[in-house]
Amino acid sequence: MATSLVDTTNSSNQLLLEDSFSEPKRPSGSVVDACAGNGIAEPSTDLASKQHRGLDGLRNKRDGRFENIRSKFARQKDQSQQYFESRRALVKESYANGVCCCTFEFFFQQSLRRELEGIYKREKNGMDVLLEGERIERGLVERKYEDWERNYIRECRKEWTKKYPATPFWYDGSGAAS
Fold first, then answer.
1. Where are the domains of the chain?
2. Could you give the CA distance from residue 150 to residue 145 in angstroms, rounded to a whole number?
3. CA distances from 68 to 43, 141, 168 (A)
4. How many CB atoms neighbour CB 170 within 10 A?
5. Are 138 and 66 in contact (CB under 8 A)?
6. Rounded to 5 degrees, what are φ and ψ at 140?
């Protein structure tokens, strides 16, 4: 009968008994793992690097937007130059084909020169407008991203002082110059 008692014991009970008599479990070797399990905050270097990455990402977006603006206006300038170049060629061709008499050639040359000067003037005005438009657009983007960066740094500073009140904020030291 004793054997029947041993045979009929539940295997889950044996597992409980084995666990209760075994050596206590050791925590993992890493201090960060132990701290993370207890709800202790991340080290200040981790937070600083995370905030640096966020700020760098914001600056990369700004630079990407600047590049988009630059390429858009460069494309418009190229199209404008091609248009005015074809316009000049068309005017020159029409005057070259229109000269029928040598006596009127002088008048045709002056008329051609005036028309070409008008085309050059319109081209210069168009380029000035494009440059001014690019400057305005870049200024808008720059101000927008400056505001976003200022707000991001303010939020980072709040988070930093909440987690590490005794440690100076990382941006105040070396990051303020960049």
1. 63-178
2. 8
3. 38, 11, 37
4. 21
5. yes
6. -60, -45
59-64 own/partner pairs: CB under 8 Å, 24+ apart:
59/145, 59/149, 61/145, 62/141, 62/142, 62/145
pLDDT tens for 57-98 read: 999 999 999 999 999 999 999 999 999 999 999 988 887 776
Here the tokens at position 59 are: 């600056």
pLDDT of residue 33 exceeding 60: no
- Condensed to tens digits (0 to 9), the pLDDT of residues 93-118 reads 887 776 555 566 666 778 888 999 99
Residue with tokens 């993370």: 36
Token pair belonging to 49: 């690097």
CB 154 within 8 A of CB 54: no
Tokens of 135: 């400057």
